[in-house]
């Protein structure tokens, strides 16, 4: 019995590693920040829990589906051949079931949140799951991934206000640009494989040097959009703390871009995970602080 439990726990650990549960730090902080922006004070704790649960379930559905859809591609790519499905650590069928179950639970949580969130939940799933196939025919797959993550702050706003407004849309597009920018950097690692496998990506289509230029332009756009988020909305404009946070985000992105060059991709992992985790956490922390300070004053 203890052996069976241990095996199941190991399988859970392998699954969580496969879907990179730690990467939830990318989109989730933007969703929490959007909830505070929508409420203009501390949101109800249960509502925040619902938003977090919806984000985690959506990401689990998307990542497990992605690993299932890409299993044969991953097996041929030396960089990804050690992932759980091609390595034989998890079966393809159970991973697909996990994606389906997470999708169903996501829709159920959306129903729990409010009617608009429930009605839009299938649209979100189409984007989240459909992304996995876009790299087979369009280099704009990076933008689709950005859209998938950019839905999180819009969804959080809907959870609080049951409406769509300009401020969360601007934040969502900022997240889109930020995500597409760092995903292009990450894709530079697979240029030769993608070309040989006839997979579409901006680095494979245009080369690494030009792809990094596109990445930098996207990150400039993300910062400009974050500034715009602070200048619109139904309440008072966001103040100095928010804009100091945006300046810090800009600084992190400049440093991130400085780590990668067309002839040196050795620090992609640092640029991809550590620094982008800092971007989202810094943005969340300064946004929440600005909202709470503004409420107190």
**Major β-sheet, in short?**
none
- If you average the pLDDT, what whole number results? 91
Number of helices: 13
Rounded to the nearest angstrom, the distance between the terminal CA atoms is: 59 Å
Note poorly predicted spans.
none
Give the amount of beta strand, in percent. under 5%
What tags apply to this protein structure?
297 residues, mainly alpha
Write the layout of secondary structure elements.
Layout lengths: L1 H17 L9 H12 L5 H25 L1 H6 L15 H22 L1 H20 L6 H21 L4 H22 L3 H7 L4 H5 L1 H22 L10 H19 L9 H29 L1
Structure description:
With 297 residues, the chain is mainly alpha-helical. Helices cover 76% and strands 0% of the residues.
Quick recap:
The longest helix has 29 residues, at 268-296.
